[in-house]
Amino acid sequence: MPAIDTLPIALGLENSYARLPERFFARLAPTPVNAPQLIRLNHQLSNLLNLDPEVLTSAQGVDVLAGNQVPESSEPLAMAYAGHQFGNFVPQLGDGRAILLGEVVGKDGMRRDIQLKGSGRTPFSGIGDGRAWIGPVLREYIVSEAMYALGVPTTRSLAAVTTGEMIWRETIVPGAVLTRVARSLVRVGTFQYFAARRDVEAMQLLADHVIARIFPECAEAENPYRAFLDAVVAGQSVLVAQWMRVGFIHGVMNTDNMSVACETIDYGPCAFMDAYHPETVFSSIDRAGRYAYVNQPYIAHWNLACLAQALLPLLAADDETAVAEAQAAVDAFPGLIGSARRNAMRGKIGLVSEQEGDDALLQDLLERMVDNRADFTQTFRALCDGAAADPDISIEADESIRSRFSDPQAFDVWARKWRRRLQLENVTGETRKAAMRAVNPAFIPRNHRIEAVINAAVENSDFQPFHELVSVLEKPYDDQPDFAAYSNAPEQTEIVHRTFCGT
Ligand code: AMP
Ligand code: MG
């Protein structure tokens, strides 16, 4: 009999995706790595998933997180999908560097996928090496967990490990594997994959799979597939409005990077804005600014039209009705995102009741922020302290807000209008302040901090800055005076202008 510690780990995974037909995926195990070492395990998430942190941090557990051992209950696979990349349709992409290990049902009753990213080549790798380097792995861990704490729907990070192998990017860099957790890894591009092959049977099986798992209420609808499309349209409006609220720029909103579970997925050259400008773009490959901050609602709309088009054969028996159903579903998006975004932004300046001129008031602030290079996060956070409608009470707080503007008087002019407007609200200044603090974070994963974390890891194998940043970002709405420096905007020399893909 083998010793206890050499028994394969079970983990109790389920594999509903592996029950779908073979043309949905390629079955293969992750490719083992030289010398895996755990960087970090997310204990809170591990507990939520009913996965024992002690098991996952053991040598065998780390082997699983690195892909050196496949849990007994796992049926590992790489998922097939297609997608529009920067507007151009690519009929086959698929998991080129990721392996789905299986699913777990968490303590909250929710089923989630567990996937390794950076786990070696697959039949979908093309010329890629199937690996990830430590930079994008740390970035995804930091940003996805920060998004979760900020209250934005997102895939999460269960663990990060180093592989003990060096890989080639522009230079030689240390390899790493991220364990990603998602409500579903089905993308708009997964539907497009089967639509491009006119495989209606597969599309129906895929839609039924997603409905059963994410949108069970749609199964009861008169037209379940139309209800499913409506649900994704609504879910994406909520998601993108939240991105706008926190100043997040996804960077590569290709249809293969848009989840039908409506979580933020595929963190690549993503970034949070420092100084507010609607046209902000960070991604080095987004030369035309297609995925700029302000364009995100339009791109989501475009992507949803791609989903609707793929679903046409399921929406109705005849073409004309199908097109009408698809059009009606997609046409709802501008209204939904418009109001979701407006509500999110109104909350940031403490407005509860709706009054004429509110949109103009908000727009005026944003324009003044652009003109005065005001930091997005800091300005709104400082605004919370000035939430009293009485200008006399707010003088001290205003000093802190004004200083964010290159011409502080630009704020004063707006503040007078804002306070007059606040007097129409039926809440106390304290209540308003608390509500504003709950939607205006003090801490976001700033680019210059992420870069510093990655540099320390690559140059000195020092993960302390990574751990500290992750832990500060667990409570983005608390002041955390000991870590106040993390809320600072970058100095002129620290500003990061470009971010790069994970590949
Ligand atoms: P992404 O940039 O994550 O949206 O990836 C686009 C496509 O490229 C997906 O099909 C990925 O699986 C694939 N890909 C990205 N990086 C790699 C890599 N290092 N090796 C193999 N495939 C990759
Ligand atoms: Mg992707």
Overall, the morphology is globular
Bound molecules: adenosine monophosphate, magnesium ion
How large is the count of helical segments? 16
Give the number of DSSP strands: 12
Distance N to C terminus? 43 Å
Rounded average pLDDT = 95
Strand content: 5-15%
Domain count: 3
Tell me the radius of gyration: 24 Å
Low-confidence stretches: none
Helices and strands, in N-to-C order? EEHHHEEEEEEHEEHHHEEHHHHHHHHH
Q: What is the subunit arrangement here?
A: single chain
In short:
This protein is of the alpha+beta class and 503 residues long.
Description:
- This protein has 503 residues and is an alpha+beta fold.
- It has 3 domains: 6-182, no CATH class; 188-343, no CATH class; 352-497, no CATH class.
- The protein is 42% helix and 12% strand.
- The protein has 16 helices and 12 strands.
- The protein has helices at residues 43-48, 53-57, 59-66, 134-150, 188-196, 200-213, 224-246, 296-315, 319-348, 358-371, 376-385, 395-402, 408-422, 429-437, 447-460, 464-472; strands spanning 25-27, 37-41, 77-79, 83-85, 88-90, 98-105, 111-117, 132-133, 156-168, 172-182, 248-249, 271-272.
- Strands 2, 6, 7, 8, 9 and 10 form a 6-stranded antiparallel β-sheet that branches. The protein has a two-stranded antiparallel ribbon with strand order 1-3.
- A hairpin with a 3-residue loop joins strand 9 (156-168) and strand 10.
- The protein is globular, with a radius of gyration of 24 Å.
- The two termini are 43 Å apart.
- The model has no long low-confidence stretch (mean pLDDT 95).
- The structure holds adenosine monophosphate (AMP) and magnesium ion.
- Adenosine monophosphate binds at residues 93-97, 124-125, 128-131, 252, 254, 256-257, 266, 268, 501-503.
